[in-house]
Amino acid sequence: MSAESLEIAKNLYQSGKAAFESGQYRQAVENLEKAIALVNRNSRTGGEVQIWLVTAYEAAGRTEDAIALCEELKRHPFSETSKQARRLVYILKAPKLQRPSEWMTQIPDLGALSDNESKIRLAANSTKSNQPKKPTEREYVDLSQVNTKDNRFIWVALITISLILGSLVWLSF
User: What residue intervals traverse the membrane (predicted)?
Assistant: First the structure.
């Protein structure tokens, strides 16, 4: 492997990671597959790229490809890569749990709105936010409704603390 192809592979690997982290999973898969073609699959770098490819496959909805690649990586020469592959296979093969619908937030489909309707809504929201707000009036509290009695708990607590401190001072001599 030449130094030039190794440099290209590292650039593709970084591009694939960046695409994955920004949510562009298909682009990540493409870049990582190209990077694997340029590096030795049994090297440490090859193992890292393949582990990232497993996660990109899963994110892109290609779970079967991810599991198949993990099964291959379980026999990788570097122990860290094979250990990660075993953990990932366990996670990928785990049964999917059903989430209650009340745990989920529904995001409205904005594609159904026409362009004109969305512009009207945006304009209405911006004019509402630009209007000056009215100063709030002070709310007066009726003092006859406020509890102003002494709280006995405070006196009990102060006496208890002073007794404890006094006994500690007396016992220290």
Answer: 153-171
